[in-house]
Amino acid sequence: MGELLRSMGECTGIGITSHAREIVISGYARRGNWMDAMRTLMEMEVDIDEYERDRDLVGGGNDENVGWVGNDDVYLTVLTSLARANRYDVVNTLLTSMRRRGCRPDVYVYNSLLKLCASDATPRWREALSLLSQCQREPGIKPDLITYTTAMRACARGRKAGKAMELFRAVRDMGTLTLDVYFYTTAMDACAKEGGRRWMVEAMSLLDEMGTRGIVPNEVTYGVAVAACGNAGRWEEALVLLDKMRDAGLRINTITDSFTYSSAIGVCGAAGRWREAVDLIREMKGNGARPNRVAFTSAITACAISRQWESAFEIFKEMKYDGLQPDIVAYNALIGAGMNSNKPKEVYDIWGEMCNMSSSERVSPDIVTLTEVVATLDKAPGRVNRERVDEVFSEAVKRGLILRKDSLDTSLEVDLSSMSFPIARAACRFIFRRIAERSSEDGEIGDLSLITGPPRMREYVREVLRDELTPPVYCMVPKAEQGTLLVKKQVLTNYIRGQ
């Protein structure tokens, strides 16, 4: 585009008009090329300033460049590009430049920038408050309710309920703006995202205040209130709010309103209230709303906490039947249900299903999966379950879930300190099998160090080596390294010969 501008000037034999530059600047900015947009904008400002100085010296002259103070749309386009690139330092520079040229940003400009702060994946609450402060000081304009609401949204996204409530009280106490349901709901959302009983009480207080002011809560308001109860672990209050919605005749049967159900199911799930969670899934579907992954997974979690394997599995199958591909969280919730209900075969089968998935399904076991599967099989009796543990652990090593090649572990020094007891037990068997296999290949053996950390893990591993390996493996604790077990070279040699 820069070449286009230059060629325009060369071909016409006249200067490049400000309108042509504006088109190029907007093109750069809309494509996210904020650096070239800023460069072209600054070049235009410099050229116009020089032109006007020369004109004043010689007198006369009249064209569209004279008196150019800036185009609001061009500035807003560049400002938006800068905000999307998270260059708020340059945003402030450009705002200053606008004022200097007599093109003062209006409330629409500030609201547009605040909207970007509130919707950014990275919380931009500091930048939002800075922009709000500038807007409040800007001569000739006043922040409107959208300005304050959007700034509060940015604070909510950053989990800064205190800051959001400061803004809320300041606006309420001013008494110059007519507060609406969106303003209250945003403040409640900030409380819900912060979490905890204190902020739940604050959110419920705002809900009550809406009633006294004659502001009617909508479905989103109640959904946020339910989420506040959920984040405080208060499932009873969440269900009471759902009853209030029904009494008020509010719909909970649209796709957007499924947030309310999901929030209620989530709090029931965290509290292990499986019957309530499953009933809400049924009610949700009966009202025409489609449960999402969060709702299904929360219901499965509730069943898992309450050791209700059959109900958890039914919900899981229903999730698939509804066309939702379970993600890793849903699979781990189901495995947790199997673990708590002592279902080793079912858990082992789920592990196999996850390992055999195609790459397009994008679900594969993680360390949580491994830990729960091994824990389930480890406490189940019988040789077959011991063999399944070894099979699962070997697959996990191949997948890089455990004993990773990019860790500090070597063939003769392994860190077990962060593992659960069942995982450490399986790791010991795997390590010694691998040592025996590799000894026939390279023939070199040295002392083996097992880093165990706390004494409880150290003694547990010592028992595993002594009681579960054949022949038994005896180890020592170095005086200077109490969190380590040392297996001497000769002990390893005897173990290998005994295989």
From TrEMBL:
Chain positions of PPR repeats: 71-105, 144-178, 180-217, 218-252, 257-291, 292-326
Record-linked Pfam families: PPR, PPR_1, PPR_2, PPR_3
UniProt keywords, alphabetically: Repeat
Protein name, as recorded: Pentatricopeptide repeat-containing protein
Species the sequence originates in: Cyclostephanos tholiformis
Upper taxonomic lineage: Eukaryota, Sar, Stramenopiles, Ochrophyta, Bacillariophyta
